[in-house]
Amino acid sequence: METGLHGVALLDLLIGYEKAIIVDAVKTGRHPAGTILDIETGRLNPIDNPSPHFTGIPELIRLARELNVCFPKEILIVGMEVVNTEDMGTEMTGEVVAALDQLTERILSHVP
Question: How far is the CA of 33 from the CAs of 18, 29, 40, 49, 93, in angstroms?
Fold first, then answer.
């Protein structure tokens, strides 16, 4: 499923699934653009946000537990390092385009 939703809005999309792979752009500043990263949700620290629009995966997991809804017990984030996550556009950078096949292979490697 492809979506531009983020924050609490993702809760409705994930309810009812046992496992999920989330693919997203990430900017850590520690890797060159185009680097593919497997991010385990257990390694993410929850943060306090001023708005539910900026709720992250750790907060969604906590909220799902509090609501006692069927939420994926296994969530893997496959991220691609990008130069800029603030500006939205329709064109991908050359580094991202060059890494798309590798990204697809990485995602498929996690699908049984």
Answer: 31, 9, 20, 27, 9
